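To whoever picks this up:

The nightly regression suite flagged undecaprenyl-diphosphate phosphatase as changed. Nothing in the input moved, so I suspect the structure step. Input below, exactly as stored in the fixture:
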Amino acid sequence: MVRPLARAFSRSGDGYLHLLIPVLLWQLESPLLASFVTVLGLALAAERCLYWCLKNSLKRRRPQEAVPGFRSLVVAADQFSFPSGHSSAAFLLATTLVLIYGGPVVIMFLWACGVALSRVLLGVHFPGDTVAGGLMGTSIALSCAALAGVL
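Regenerated output under the current build:
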């Protein structure tokens, strides 16, 4: 039961929602869509750059590589683990949605926590990777919202 749920949460953090949610909001003719897309676009550009630079300069090995006898349940898309890109992107999306639309804060952050936890349960990240990713995504979303005049 845990493995399929972890896989589902992990897949939900693959980035599809970052495209699907703006399309859905456009279909709903959201008056806040322009602000949301501006903050999300700025934040994703900054987050992906920082994520890539950190991951490829720090080069922290994944649990399967670092812990003898450990096997992950999925194959990671890249070689290094710190920070968790899934966690960073999930917390970035949750923070941006909450900043622009308010609403079910707990639900969005519970989803982001589920994505982060799933990456640890699947064995592709250490807990610190996901904590760092979550803090990074949240901080970048807050910074970009401030730059865009949303805060």
